[in-house]
Amino acid sequence: MAFSLIEEDIRRSDVFIVVSLIGMVMIIVAGSRGVYDTPDSDNYEILYYSVNSLDDDIREPSMVYLSYYLNSLGFGINAFFFAYAAMSIPLRLTAILKLSPLPILTLAIYISYFYQLHDLMQIRCAVASALFLFALYFRAQKKWWKALFFILIGMLFHYSAFAGIVILFFSNKELNAWQRIVLASLVPLCLMFYFFGFDYSYFIPDELGGDRLAAYREMKDKGKEDDMTFVFYKHPVFLLNVVLYYGCLIYYNTLARNYKYMPIMLKTLAFAFFCMLTLNTLSGVLASRLYEYFAIVSIFLWTATIYIFRPLNYGKILISVVIFIQCMANIFIYTLGWYTNHMK
Description:
Blueprint: H1 12-32, H2 41-50, H3 61-72, H4 77-99, H5 103-112, H6 114-119, H7 123-140, H8 144-155, H9 177-196, H10 210-221, H11 236-250, H12 252-258, H13 262-278, H14 284-294, H15 298-304, H16 312-343
């Protein structure tokens, strides 16, 4: 945050140096953590040591191959963590440099929540979502095949990355008034799905993923994911993103003049809300997983909001508050809650 306050006065080459040095620290932290330092790390340890061949057709190929070869070379679980961090973090930082007008500020926003969530916990999704950002970049450039390529590569790291294909139907054209009205109405409509518990997954054919959805439905019916039930008004980061979403719609003209990727980022965040609120009836795990995969775009939208303010540092002060709330929410609500239950 300190660097971001003077970012406009820093040469682009120096911005790259700052981002690179911070990235190195992020890789070291992610790779050297203990298995009981963050949620899911102990589960990854179990999965890592249980891979005995390359014939596992359930786990993603990247996890199977990395686990098998690192195991065969005698490396422990931290080599596995380092391998994923060495892929996800450079990819993410490169995408931030491409997609953000203020990369240092965007990086600070990323560290406050998604770095902890992805690179320290959901490490497979970390790589998939970093590749998804490249897909967004190329889709905005109308390079369809490159966008599809990065989504498909992301599936090697997390199968849910397949949902990213939806962005091929998005465009980065300026949003007119009626399109903004449609986007504004999306969250209230999705809340109706949420409160009435409508499950549209029954209408999806097995060939289009209906069988996979049925498996999630079975997990929920058996009570295997009760602790993942999503209550939107108890999710501070989700609520912050809803405020961000409507703020961007209200000040759309100002923001779009200063940030050229505003249309496609707003559409992607809208789809993230759709996934979280409408799929929760089917599976809290699936809903939150897809939401976090698409909601990564919020780091760029939060960055863009500073252009509402004059001078820009007023906006950065607001972002500092957001960063603090997101960071504390992740540490005290999610991580410590998991740690307390785990130690029991």
